[in-house]
Amino acid sequence: MIVVENLHKHFGGFHAVDGASLEIKAGTITGLIGPNGAGKTTLFNVIAGRLPPTSGRVLMNGEDITGLPPHELFHKGLLRTFQIAHEFSSMTVRENLMMVPADQTGESIWSSWFHRGAIREQEKALLDKADEVLDFLTIDHLRDEKAGNLSGGQKKLLELGRTMMVDARIVFLDEVGAGVNRTLLNTIGDAIVRLNKERGYTFCMIEHDMDFIKRLCDPVIVMAEGKVLAEGSADAIMANEQVIEAYLGTGLKNKVQAEAGA
Questions:
Q1: Strand order in the sheet with 2-11
Q2: Helix, strand or coil for residue 208?
């Protein structure tokens, strides 16, 4: 679905993404892991149109989408969430969801004067859709709560819910588990798996919680120093010496030898 070819993103002399190439296949939940500074979020930002690449290409189903702005990618079904949730804090949870679909009839002054019936019908459909999403995510009891009052984990669920208000095809999740308690993290994980299996969503997720990655993701892609270091199943990645070295600063053999000599 998504193919990244020899992608570079430089900030002056710093090469945040340095020739990364990878593929995210349709129907997968792909994990993207690596140490801090590996280039993971920068890669997301380039794919999702928030940053232009220095060079390289991004393809979506064979179409070159390199450098397209986020609103155009939104209409193609490519969405992303953020490590820090971006909610409208003074609006209710339900209202946050209802704002997502683009080109709503009520946004036009002309339509607000002459097409009130159509506006009412669309608002009813959006209301029903929002309630269905809240029920799916098991947070229907929060529908009338101000979004700013939600916990960190509930805000992550709300962000996931926003992707359900449109015809998302692929969703990039940036540290969906950051700052989330284990109970809510399990709820988020269940929702991601259901969206993948029941509704055909493709996901790519940055995450540091390897238990969460192991539960959800196959394959797992590892980045280090702006490059793709390894790819495989979670078990294979966790046993890969290069990956261990990238995270811990020492190879598995050296670690074993040091322990044997102690």
A1: 14-24, 2-11, 55-60, 63-64
A2: coil
Instruction: Report the C-alpha gap between 16 and 103 in whole angstroms.
Output: 35
177 lies in the same domain as 73: yes
Examine residue 111 and state whether it is found in any structural domain, yes or no: yes
Range of the domain at 28: 2-87+166-260
DSSP 144-172: TSBGGGS-HHHHHHHHHHHHHTTT-SEEE
Dist. CA 22–CA 208, nearest whole Å: 19
Q: Which residues pair with 29 in a beta bridge?
A: 203, 218
| DSSP helix, strand, coil percent of the chain (3-state; round to 5) | 45, 25, 30
- Prediction pTM value: 0.84
**163-198, pLDDT tens digit by residue?**
888 878 999 999 888 888 889 999 999 999 999 999
Q: Which residues pair with 3 in a beta bridge?
A: 23, 59
